[in-house]
Recover the amino acids of this structure.
């Protein structure tokens, strides 16, 4: 198992006190949320398809749909992109 050191500002330490026995779990949860947010941003900007965004986030398409709704995310489409999809 890998070990790493993380510096936490002193003023944030009280927030972590309740989770001190589960910091690894907390870190993995944060990593998962970061992946979802990054995938949503790429999707919203029209840089990746919905399916690719779900893949990058590590979610099923159904779960990704729930995330787009929760965060109010919709793709940014151009007419050219629509024409390419339909053409």
């Amino acid at each position: 198992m890998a070990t790493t050191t993380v510096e936490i500002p002193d003023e944030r330490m009280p927030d972590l006190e309740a989770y001190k026995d589960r910091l690894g779990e907390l870190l993995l949860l944060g990593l998962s949320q970061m992946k979802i947010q990054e995938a949503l941003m790429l999707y919203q900007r029209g840089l990746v398809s919905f399916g690719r965004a779900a893949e990058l986030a590590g979610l099923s398409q159904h779960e990704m749909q729930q995330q787009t709704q929760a965060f109010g995310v919709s793709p940014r489409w151009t007419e050219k992109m629509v024409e390419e999809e339909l053409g």
Notes: Residues 9 and 50 are 37 Å apart (CA to CA).
